[in-house]
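Hello K.,

You asked for the raw outputs rather than the summary table, so here they are, unedited. I folded two proteins back to back in the same session to keep the settings identical. This is the first:
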Amino acid sequence: QVQLVESGGGLVQAGGSLRLSCAASGTIFSRFAVGWYRQAPGKQRELVAAITRGGNTNYADSVKGRFTISRDNAKNTVYLQMNSLKPEDTAVYYCNIPRSSLGYDVWGQGTQVTVSS
């Protein structure tokens, strides 16, 4: 059974940084593309960043230049480095293996990021 566990969230002041981690078990993470999503209260879940098996990345316009997604295949982990955080980045952040990879979506439990102004 594939499981994803996010960590690294917390409370930070505007302009600060956090690094989120997404650790996988039950599979070899490097076989899959992985996405980081976020969901703020009252809003739909949105894709923040994604990384392919080969390491190609793409970002939502709202985080370009501030967030960086990366992967460490030896640790079976994907990271989201978040710099210059803004209050509007406040959300629960989730990592995901898309349905196209396994035939079903795999989600972690999420980690809360709160940015104070």
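The second followed immediately with the same parameters:
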Amino acid sequence: QVHLVESGGGLVQAGGSLRLSCAASGNIFSINTMGWYRQAPGKQRELVAGITSGGSTNYADSVKGRFTISRDNAKNTVYLQMNSLKPEDTAVYYCNYEPWDARFESWGQGTQVTVSS
């Protein structure tokens, strides 16, 4: 079981920036993908960005050029730098850990990001 703890959410004005962090602990497989998902009220959870243990990244089209995902494998921590935030980025952001064996997938508790116009 892997435990994920997110931090860094909050309230920011449109055009501002926030940095989310997610620290993983427990029985972590060396080969894994970590990512950020978000869920806005009344909408389905969607992938925001993901990064493999090898450093390959992918992003939702809506955040490309504005958000950057990174990770520190020594600290088992993944980050999401969010710039040029828009009101439509308002959501609960969830950290996700997916090892090669998806049975051991884990989710964080979520952190609220609110962008005011």
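The longest strand covers residues 18-26.

Happy to rerun anything if the numbers look odd on your end.

Regards,
P.
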